[in-house]
Write a structure and sequence with these properties.
The chain is an alpha/beta fold and 337 residues long. It is built from 11 helices and 14 strands.
């Protein structure tokens, strides 16, 4: 079975490519390389001994997307293609709506033209907005607090509407919580450009001396230690969730949403302490005011994925912290040679 990974050269895509190849799937990647590096896929090839066909192109470009489908005739698509920085989405909303929604619609259209009916969509826990009913179940009403989140909600709605009108379609919507870590080898990992937006790569850059200290946004939340709590999961667990979603989609029609998380809320200080313990390092930090819109606690109920996909997160927080630093230590400049 041949899988097209749209946006598959990035952080989650490259780890998923590795898992798919190890499971015997053929993998084609289409990526505009805006926030990704072909070096990640070269390393995946070296690790697996298998080839990954890389097609450079933008999924918003319908002509280019048709060329890729005509050349490779994929049996299924995993849709990672999209812009993902919350702050940037607030500053450039039209850019985000145009890019993320057009990519989804283009893939849907071209898939139909080439009789490709299985799609796994990279969604996000941000679709739950400011929901306070924890743990978050898939039945919680969705609502965005920023344009990025709304692009995920709208893309989910597009896919649900398309599935209702075409009983040949099988769409699996994966609502990620907070992926961190890297492959245990340290050969592939997260390589953000500029100052990271996410906690773990920020900690790694403090540990490596690129940044002087970690900014902790608020220590007065109603949590165990006053810092915000989130559901963090290992990127390899997340990648394995995509393989499980492909297997599920083979035998199920329609559109179905699943949370991918551990079901445990870890605080910012939990992450810092585990990182220090796992790697025998000290992470200096300074507490700064809360960020607007941040909620105190957010974590998943992953029981639906466990029951229907046969998937659950296996790796613990210590392992997430160890593997994240192992990647950073081996690749202080990321994929740059």
């Amino acid at each position: 079975m041949k899988i097209l990974l749209a946006g598959g050269a990035g952080y989650i895509g490259s780890h998923t490519a590795l898992c798919l190849l190890e499971k015997g799937y053929d993998v084609v990647v289409m990526d505009n390389l805006l926030n990704a590096s072909p070096e990640a896929l070269r390393r995946v090839e070296k690790m697996t001994g298998k080839q990954v066909a890389l097609e450079v192109g933008d999924c918003c470009d319908i002509a280019r997307t048709r060329e890729v489908f005509a050349a490779h005739k994929p049996d299924a698509v995993i849709h990672f293609a999209g812009l993902k920085a919350v702050g940037e989405s607030v500053a450039k909303p039209l850019y985000y709506y145009q890019n993320n929604l057009i990519a989804t619609m283009t893939l849907c259209q071209v898939m139909k033209e080439y009789d490709c009916n299985i799609l796994v969509f990279s969604s996000s826990a941000t679709v739950y907005g400011l929901a306070t009913e924890m743990p978050l179940r898939e039945t919680v009403p969705t609502g965005g607090t920023n344009p990025y989140a709304w692009t995920k909600i709208m893309s989910e709605q597009i896919l649900q509407d398309v599935a209702k009108t075409d009983d040949s379609r099988s769409f699996v919507l994966l609502r990620y919580f907070n992926p961190i870590g890297a492959h245990e080898s340290g050969h592939i990992g997260e390589d953000p450009t500029g100052i990271p937006n996410n906690l773990m790569p920020y900690i790694c850059q403090v540990a490596s001396g690129k940044l002087d200290y970690l900014r902790v946004f608020g220590d007065d939340y109603p949590t165990r230690d006053g810092t915000g709590e989130r559901d963090y999961l290992h990127v390899m667990d997340l990648a394995e969730g995509h393989v499980a979603a492909i297997e599920y989609a083979k035998d199920h029609k329609g559109a179905e949403a699943f949370n991918l998380g551990t079901g445990t809320a870890y605080s910012v200080m939990d992450i810092v302490k585990n990182f220090e313990k796992a790697n025998d390092l000290t992470i200096p930090y300074q507490v700064t005011p809360r960020r607007p819109g941040d909620i105190a606690v957010c974590y998943a109920d992953p029981s639906k994925a466990r029951e229907l996909l046969g998937w659950e997160a296996k790796r613990d927080l210590y392992t997430m912290c160890r593997d994240a630093w192992n990647w950073q230590k081996q690749n202080p400049r990321g994929y740059e040679k």
